[in-house]
Design brief:
Blueprint (H helix, E strand, L loop, with lengths): L2 H14 L3 E5 L10 E6 L2 E7 L4 H12 L11 H8 L5
Helix pairs in contact: 1-2
Length: 89
C-alpha cells in the first residue's frame, strides 16, 4: 500500500475514534519528535509534524492509535496487521 494512502487511512481511523488530527510545523531543532497523541480538556488530538517524513507520520499515528480499543471497529486487514505488529519499519 502506498505510504500516502496508508497515512490517510490512519487519519480516517483516528477521526472515527473522535481524535482530531492536526498537522503542525514543529521545529525539529527544538523537538526530536514527529508528533504524538495528546489530550486537552478531555479531547484527544493527534499532532503530526508537517515537516516530518510520511514514514515518520505513519509511525506516529500507529503509536497513537495503539492506545485505543479497536476490537469493535472495522479496520482494513492490512492496517489492523500494522497496528498489531511490534514495529513498523
Amino acid at each position: 500500500m502506498d505510504d500516502e494512502i496508508l497515512l490517510s487511512q490512519l487519519e480516517e481511523l483516528a477521526n472515527k475514534l473522535g481524535i482530531a488530527v492536526r498537522h503542525e510545523k514543529i521545529d525539529m531543532d527544538e523537538a526530536s519528535t514527529a508528533g504524538g497523541l495528546c489530550r486537552l480538556k478531555g479531547e484527544y488530538f493527534l499532532i503530526l509534524n508537517s515537516r516530518a517524513t510520511v514514514k515518520e507520520k505513519i509511525r506516529t499515528a500507529i503509536d497513537a492509535l495503539r492506545h485505543f480499543d479497536l476490537n469493535d471497529i472495522y479496520i482494513k486487514p492490512v492496517i489492523r496487521e500494522l497496528l498489531n505488529r511490534n514495529e513498523w519499519e
